[in-house]
Amino acid sequence: MICVVVVEAWAGELEGLCGRIGGRFGRAEPRRRVAEYVSGLVAGLDRKNGWTLAEQAGEVSPDGMQRLLRRADWDVDGVRDDVRDYVVDRLGDPGAVLIVDDTGFLKKGTRSAGVQRQYSGTAGRTENCQVGTFLAYRSRFGHALIDRELYLPQTWTEDRDRCAAAGIPGEVGFTTKPRQGIAMIERALTGEVPFSWLTADEAYGQVKYLRVWLEQRDEAHVLATKRNDDLVTTDGPGSHGLRDYDWARVEIRVRMWWTPGRGHWLLARRNRTSGELAYYVCYGPRRTSLAQLAAVAGARWAIEECFQQAKQTCGLDDYQVRDWRAWNATHHPVHARLRRPRRRPRRAGKRGSTRTCQDMIGLTVPEIRRLIATLLHRPHPAAFV
């Protein structure tokens, strides 16, 4: 039996999100259309590009959806911050972990902003692609993407005519992915996003200026690094963790400074089956346990799940736009729109019944998407002629 109350709650979440960002739109038409855009993203469509989203909204061409992303009057970065705050309202927790990572988007041609043959972790090889750097938020209530930056290779930033043709502002220069990570963390700090730890893979963890920047701000972190990274150790015993890995840590000494009440460790993980080793440079409260460090290191995989779900469920891979502004508009953390409400409502039942939706078999995200699209989606084609 379908729990309609849950479906209505999800529809209410979508309506609430659209209401939250409504003030960022200067005109009524894009404000209405963004509701159709968001509804299309959670609808059960095989692909989610300009044509399919327009058809879902009852429009005869993708022009309106593309105009929304490329030229309509609305505050793209303001909506980014609104979506982040929406996530924090529902998943916020002082013990949360921020996760930095990048992902590739395979593209054809040479005109899309930032596209070139470059390594894509998604494909596991060098491909013609765009690469985006993302920030994810993970707490005990769930996880979602909360920020993004499009990576521009130097071959792009050194060719200002090419940048101008792709709509890239003149003041945008080359920025490394770790620097993009710093910019997103700074926005999270400015927005008072509650968290206790930050983690990232070795592409970020081996970058010493990132580690220094975090330590200068007293931000606790567990960052993967390569085995040839230079660290200064002190004498200290290791210990073991649980699950499928053995964990050990040893204290390290940082030459530049030492903060009272804070500790530095090298964390090592060994796969019990293959024997493969992985290493992490850690900084945080001195009383942090080995289990806590291991848990933060393990939290990094939440961003991979965010990428997978956002691409498979919200069409993060299906976009057809080429220019700078449209990429940033398209790559708002759409995965946030699929998170469950923190408290699920009580299901109406027979008198005296205390049965709730939690007593029933949980609906999956694809099932809820189909239910919302079928039962509650209300296109307004006349408004978008």
Tag the structure with descriptive keywords.
10 strands; single chain; alpha+beta; 10-stranded mixed beta sheet; 14 helices; 385 residues; disordered C terminus
Can you walk me through this structure?
Helix 2 (28-42) packs across helix 3. The chain folds into three domains: 1-74 and 346-385, no CATH class; 76-194 and 302-341, no CATH class; 202-299, no CATH class. The radius of gyration is 23 Å and the shape is globular. The protein contains 14 helices and ten strands. The relative contact order is 0.17. The longest helix is centred in the N-terminal third of the chain and has 18 residues, at 4-21. Helices cover 37% and strands 20% of the residues. Mean pLDDT is 81; it is low at 237-243, 337-361 and 378-385. Strands 1, 2, 3, 4, 5, 6, 7, 8, 9 and 10 form a ten-stranded mixed β-sheet that branches. The chain is an alpha+beta fold and 385 residues long.
